[in-house]
Amino acid sequence: MNLTVEIDGETHRLTDCNWVLRNPAGCAVGSLWASADTASADLAHREFTPLKRHRDQQIRQGYALELVGRKQWQQRIQPCFQATCSHRTAA
Length: 91
Fold this sequence. Notes:
This protein is of the alpha+beta class. The protein is built from four helices and five strands, in the order E-E-E-E-H-H-E-H-H. It has helices at about 40-50, 50-60, 70-80, 85-90; strands at about 5, 10-15, 20, 30-35, 65-70.
């Protein structure tokens, strides 16, 4: 089964995408490959943060999940993990 998603008007295979967990400043703090097991933001959030009370706390604090394609990941997310993103320089 090949699930597809639309991101910014482009169709992607779900398995070619990544879920990204962003902190309140917008900086990526976690990333995982999307799959049928993580086909929704809620399911992906459970992978990042197994305990519901911790997920609820993250949501209250302003953490957010985003599904991105490979190109978006390389352009916007990878710099967060390399400590070269604008989020870090703004902090």
